[in-house]
Design brief:
Blueprint: H1 11-19, H2 21-37, H3 62-83
Protein name: Transposase
Organism: Rhodomicrobium udaipurense
Length: 84
């Protein structure tokens, strides 16, 4: 039994990109030309990269949102009462 499909390692994609770089760039160039021809570019992308952070202290579940909202509303009412 051949184990070839299961024996691929992390270098497989990197090797493919290295071995076929010219063809990949040509396909991307043609794809961009097609998108321009079809007028599909309507927004400017600046290439920014953002890191996703989802730790317990920074994420918002529905329950956390409701608790925070109630606390904010209570604080808002207290400030309104103090202002008169």
């Amino acid at each position: 039994m051949a184990d070839w499909p299961l024996d691929d390692d992390f270098k497989t994609i990197a090797d493919f990109r290295r071995d076929n770089g010219t063809a990949i760039r040509a396909v991307c160039t043609q794809f961009v030309a097609l998108c321009r021809l079809l007028n599909l570019f309507q927004a400017i992308v600046d290439g920014s990269k953002f890191k996703a952070v989802n730790n317990r202290d920074k994420d918002f579940t529905s329950a956390k949102f409701k608790k925070t909202w109630r606390r904010w509303r209570h604080s808002s009412r207290a400030i309104s009462t103090l202002r008169g």
